[in-house]
Amino acid sequence: MRSESESYRGYNAWGRAILQQEDILQRERYAASGTITQNNKVVEASGVLGYFDIDEQAQQAGLAWARAWVDSDG
């Protein structure tokens, strides 16, 4: 799993790329998810947001979800 984080409006937003490869002959794909933490505690976490061919795209999707959650509920 690869992740990227940023500080956003008093929260830490995380975008995660989770490798999804059931068979060695399949191409690599990445599931995107997002997590919001504050004071080292999980505030909210998404389920799988989608699947991407590039890990950075999955991470960015997770970060976008986390920012949107903070903007609407945080």
Question: How would you sum up this structure, described in words?
Answer:
This is Transposase. It comes from Paraburkholderia phytofirmans OLGA172. With 74 residues, the protein is an alpha+beta fold. It has one domain. Helices cover 26% and strands 47% of the residues. The chain is built from 1 helix and 5 strands, in the order E-E-E-E-E-H. Strands 1, 2, 3, 4 and 5 form a 5-stranded antiparallel sheet that branches. Strand 1 and strand 2 form a beta hairpin. The radius of gyration is 13 Å and the shape is elongated. The relative contact order is 0.29. The mean pLDDT is 93.
Question: Topology of this protein?
Answer:
Elements: E1 2-8, E2 11-20, E3 29-38, E4 41-45, E5 50-52, H1 55-73
Antiparallel strand pairs: 1-2, 2-3, 3-4, 3-5
